[in-house]
Amino acid sequence: MTSDAISARATTNAGRRWIMALLLAISDAVAALMLAADLLVVCVSVALRYWFDAPVEWADDVARGLMVGSSFFGAASALARGDNPGVRFFIDRLPAAARATMDAAAALLMVVIAGTVAFNAIRLGGLTSGQTTGSGLPLELTFYPMGVGASFMTLFALDLFCARSLRDMTSGVIAAGLLAGLYLAWDFLVPGSVPSSGVLMLIGFFVTLFGGLPIGFALALAALIFIWVEGTLPGVIFAQQMARGIDNFVLLAIPFFILVGYLMEANGMSVRFIELLRRGVGHMRGGLNVVMVTSMVLFSGISGSKMADVAAVGSVLIPAARRSRQNPGSAVALLAASAVMAETIPPCINLIILGFVANLSIGGLFVAGLLPAGLMALALIAVSVATGKRPTASDIAEPRTPISGLWSGAIAAFGLIFMIFFGFKSGFATATEISAFAAAYAIVVGSVMFRELGLRAAAASFVQAATRSGLVLFIVAAAQSLAFILTLQQVPHAVGEFMLALSATGGVWLFLLLSIAVLIVMGSVLEGAAALIIFGPLLLPVAVKLGVDPLHFGVVLVIAMGIGLFAPPLGLGLYGACLIGNVPIEQTVKPILGYLGLLFMCLLVIAFVPVLSTTLPRALGY
Predict the structure, then answer these.
(1) Residue 345: CA atoms inside 13 Å, Cβ hemisphere, count?
(2) How far apart are CA 325 and CA 163, in angstroms?
(3) DSSP class of 399
(4) What CA–CA distance (Å, rounded) separates 42 from 204?
(5) Cα distance between residue 444 and residue 438, in whole Å
(6) Cα–Cα distance for residue pair 80/109, rounded to 1 Å
(7) Phi-psi map region of 248: left, alpha, beta (phi>0 left; psi -120 to 50 alpha)
(8) Is 541 exposed, middle or buried (0-12, 13-18, 19+ CB in 10 A)?
(9) Are residues 281 and 190 in the same domain?
(10) Looking at residues 143-156, what average pLDDT do you find?
């Protein structure tokens, strides 16, 4: 290649990077502004309804539409930053050339999938033109923002594909073309022997998932394979089901609680709270580990996002573990195990998702998870004390922050916890409305009380929350499209009959064990939300038929999913914790297996002693 050609290519790459940076800035701004508008709409509508008895009829429709748009723009920003989770365990062990080919093929598939979503969402907006929502708003206002957000996602996926070398792009196109050509040739030559569309859908899902395609895209591709092969369903059904998967007021609690977590980190509340805990119990045997578990317990009662909790706690305590000469791998393993323990502490996002897809009381699930979480927390604390060592004088040296400043952070945090639980019990507001007021509270505390939350920090928090929640909700939307296909194929009915037949011979205990095994395995393969969306509605009706309390069963499912999510070698949550702690996953495998074994024993106790999950809901009227 001549110097002129190299210079021209460098200029082209620089221009492409500038354009992509501009598009990312636009995507961030739109997602954050939509989230901020959503927060304003919900807070104002609740205030008008409660204090002035003047409900705003269109508030729910506007809030849901803004959430759908913000979710797809946020998912686009997450894709541009490379934040989409995927199973890399197998692909990273391939030779470099094969890995490059697989990555290029995956990027090409993301372009196709995102482009399909964008095309069908915009087309659906045109088809619904003239139709209105229940409050009289134009229905297409939900689909057009979704289509534009998916268009941004398509451009970012295309940029990821074009960022590779020409050789890798060519090999990726050839690999994808060979697979498509093989199917077309097989269907043309021997059509009777081609597997059914359902079988091809499952094969495509697992091949692409283990081939490194991000989870949300693998779920969406599985649904698309069925639609393409079957040939009887219009493409707009795919976009409609994706929108339907997140077009619900209940799910709006997810971005709001995630926003609370980022605001707490930005306004200094989390740092003050953790430092106060360190002063309180950090001097005892295994004190730093006890602080870590306790911090996860308390933070999970404030922020619904477990990864936001892991980031807030880990960013403070993992460096402290290094300074105290503690094995950082063990510290990260305990951090991950604490996140599993906190899966049933409200306002956990996965409890909200399970309540939504399985039609369970979210408040009831929140209450049902408290005692099981307490049991697991006590087990982790007991192990931390028994195996820990007493810190040296240098480890417990008092920092310069005055104790009064730390107490202000703790009081503010407990005020937030009280707001969340009082709101649920009093019936003052729904989970979404409570989460909105919690976010507003965090903004006021950070800007007025602590004076650490400036305009730039607040804007960054909204961008981070929109990106993270977009990532989660895109997976929820994609899982809904696949769940719709599975329902068409009567998979829920078949699974229910199979599980009932097994339980008829082995009893309820066998059904519980099988459910736990399924959620642990699928929780390690899928992101937690996707596993619950697909398997929650499949297994819960069977549990009810067998006489298992639905709130108790929901808690068991969420804990089992959490164990899988942080289990090596596939657990995506464990990879996230290792990234936050800057520790190779190999250093965490041995200690995390010990912690997960302990939590699994706790899960068996929770599963077979249902009063742990049902006592509080019954006492509180759920």
Answers:
(1) 25
(2) 41
(3) P
(4) 40
(5) 10
(6) 15
(7) beta
(8) middle
(9) no
(10) 95
Residue 463's pLDDT band (cuts 50, 70, 90)? very high
In this structure, what are the phi and psi dihedrals at residue 138, rounded to the nearest 5 degrees? -60, 130
SS3 331: helix
For the residues of 434-457, what is the DSSP string, one character each?
A: HHHHHHHHHHHIIIIIS----HHH
pLDDT at 443 over 70: yes
Burial 585-601 (b: 16+ CB within 10 A, else e): bebbeebbeebbebbbe
Q: How many domains does the chain have?
A: 2
- How many C-alpha atoms does 21 have within 13 Å on its Cβ side? 6
Closest to 73 (Cα-Cα) out of 140, 159, 129, 156: 156
Is 2 part of any domain? no
Residue among 434, 266, 275 at smallest CA distance from 347: 434
pLDDT tens-digit series, residues 500-559: 787 777 778 888 998 999 889 888 877 677 888 888 888 898 898 888 999 999 999 999
Q: Tell me what pLDDT residue 298 has.
A: 77
Q: Do the domain assignments include residue 1? A: no
Q: Note whether 128 and 261 are same-domain residues.
A: no
Q: Are 141 and 65 in contact (CB under 8 A)?
A: yes
Distance CA 567, CA 559 (A): 12
User: Under a CB-based contact definition with an 8 Å cutoff, are residues 150 and 189 in contact?
Assistant: no
148 & 234 share domain: yes
Nearest to 379 by CA among 427, 318, 337, 319: 337
Rounded distance between C-alpha atoms, residue 69 and residue 477, angstroms: 12
Looking at 301-402, list the stretches that DSSP marks H as alpha helix, in order from N- to C-terminal side. 306-323, 328-341, 349-358, 362-368, 370-387
Query: Whole-prediction pTM value?
Result: 0.85
* pLDDT digit string, tens, across residues 348-389: 888 888 988 888 888 889 899 999 999 999 999 999 888 866
Whether 543 and 511 have beta carbons less than 8 Å apart is answered as yes
Q: Is residue 439 part of a domain?
A: yes
Report how far Cα 153 is from the mean position of its chain's Cα atoms. 18
Q: Do residues 562 and 309 lie in contact, with contact meaning Cβ atoms separated by under 8 Å?
A: no
Give the position of tokens 């002693």.
609
Residues contacting residue 210 through CB under 8 Å, at least 6 positions apart:
87, 90, 91
Contact predicate 350/529, CB 8 Å? yes
